[in-house]
Amino acid sequence: MFTFLTLSAALLILASVAMIVALVVARHRAYRREQREAKAQAAIETMLADALAQGDQPTLDRSLEGLAVDLRHSMVLNALQVTGDTAKAMLSATLDVPAIRIDLLRVLKRGAEEKRVEACELLAHATSEESRTALDKALHDRSWHVQLAAARALAHRTAAAPATMIERLSPTALRSARLVEIFRPFATTVDAIAHDPGHSAAVRTSALAAIQHDDQARARDLSVRLVQDDDPRIARTAARFLDEGAPHGSTLVAEARAA
Amino acid sequence: MIDGAVRTDLIFVAEMVMVLVITTGVAQNAIYLFQLVVAAFELRRRPPILDARRLWSRYAGVAPRIAIIAPAFNEEATIIASTHAMLAQKYPDFDVIIVNDGSTDTTLERLIADFELHPVDEPIDLTLDHEPIRRVYRSSVVQRLMVIDKENGGKGDAQNAALNLCRAPLCCVMDGDTLLEPDALLRVVRPFVDDPERVVAVGATIRIANGTRIVDGQVEEVGVPKSFIARVQIIEYLRSFLMARLAWSRIGAIVLISGAFGVFRRDTLVAVGGYARGSMGEDLDVVIRLHRHLRREKQEYHIPFVPDPVCWTEVPEKLSVLARQRSRWQNGALECFFRHRGMALNPRYGRVGIAGFGQMLIVDVLGPIVEVLGYLTLPFFWYIGALNTESLLILTALVFGLGTFNSVASLILAELELRPYPRARDVLILGTAAILENFGYRQLHNLWRLRGYWHFLRSKKHWGEMPRAGFGQEESLVTSRNRQRSNA
User: Fold this and answer.
1) In the structure, what pLDDT confidence band is assigned to residue B54 with cuts at 50, 70 and 90?
2) pTM exceeds 0.90
3) Is A13's CB within 8 Å of B194's CB?
4) Cβ-defined contact of A20 to B431 (cutoff 8 Å)
5) Complex ipTM
6) Which residues sit opposite B69 in a β-bridge?
């Protein structure tokens, strides 16, 4: 028994040494590979920038098709965030190139969580019906981060505030403050949603927060009315806004509660 | 050597000591192993988002306002670089509040000169107690910078003064000598945005700046320090801070958010009475009080830990300075454990009481005493024949084997999931340090902790000096010093 335990402990130390050696070798290889990839990426980024500057869609499609999937997605995402309208339109068109679209849909189905979120963010800019269907499915993804990304992507394509769609998200997703972003583009038209007790508290507070971000005066009037709402979460959001964001907010809260 | 009844008694005592040492040692290592497994699961499930542009596009639009609070006491070497790094945050809406806690050096003068500070009248909320504020300054060049000059009262006291002047819903509490990553706030605000109703505080990963090249308050090149003492601390930070806190946050039992960096909801901090004044472990104390308060109020809450590296700190490279720091930490841990002893292993406090306080009991309260007791008595018992060679061997092998395995496994997990050090050479150096730390450093560390025990029993409260090389304007002096050493 003693010998066995002593040997086990000695083996633990040996295993530790072996793990370090293995890690060092793996890290050395990875470091070299990354350096090679960084060089290749820099070259392709230059090519992409040239293609975008010259409005050369076929070159853009070809260069993107030739890239590894991960690299392609992250480069397009980065480019979408910084490039101008024309370039964005070109990149959006690229997202509907069959090879790229198939990649994206595959990643959305089987990729890691972060990759699925990225795929949703990219598909927001794609126009095909197939991508829309995939995003609809992603609303029921096992990760609430993906659900939220899919909801944002779908909201990007709709003309009215997608309140009903948001109701389908999981309770964890509904807790996120990022829901507000979905309502922000429709902030001028979501008063009714904030008022409607038929919607969940999450949807109503998000609509209210979007209005608060968009128009302080309108938000103050709305908050005064909602401070006595039956739903405590709505009442709390309204009271908090009046307390923190509106001039004479505390007085307004007191008056509204007294009324 | 010794015969008769005395020998029988000695054998009994030796066996008892051995059982105590083995039980505590195995329990300690079992906790670390469990934390490692949970941390691995958590890192695999939610790896850090490396690209700051992604974070910005997802979170900047809904990120709440944050006030960065940094108390500074005699930080003239680092204060300007740290403040510049705080002001260089890539975050939509934030303020910086530096509290000069009665420094006796030129900390305030440097701030006044560098940021063109002028006195202002600010409304002060008097909810939390603190030493008198002498003057409040605003910068003429950077609107978001506020400097509070107050009488010396300790770190917690300075943080309370800043909380009274803070108007943001979230406050990021950090040390004046900590260097922030440019996207630190954006990384750490994620849990608050993801779950604004329940998240009350967030901790994040602190990395060691020694050996890293820092230019203009920005990390240029990550490296491993030349000093063995600093290298060992990297392993300690990975094992005891990163993995342990990540695991405990996953199961809802985190009891410590490091005073070097943490973000809190201001209203909750004020509700628990702010920071304990004159405490040696004010960062530990405040998180425990948050748990206690929120559990009593029966509120649903969560305190997550973000594995993303958000800031850099210098660690001591001199044994004497490190000894003082570790004694102080031990003193603080004991102070908090006994102050809140009612929560220890109390099922009313759920996982915090069982897992959080359980770990404190085994690692902080019993750990150093039992381990040093083992080092001192077991060789003696073996020498007088009360303990056989096999028992001594197994004990030694278990202590060193498990310790080495835990340290190396923590390093490997960090390297696989977070890749803190890109070069293979650095990994090899740290791997060697992970093995060697068990032979000599660990024993020394336990002696320092025993000294902390002694200070705690004598109610001795002294922070001690922590000399800083400074992050510098051009290049970290830490690096320069290391280079000079290597050139020599």
Assistant:
1) confident
2) no
3) no
4) yes
5) 0.76
6) B97, B173
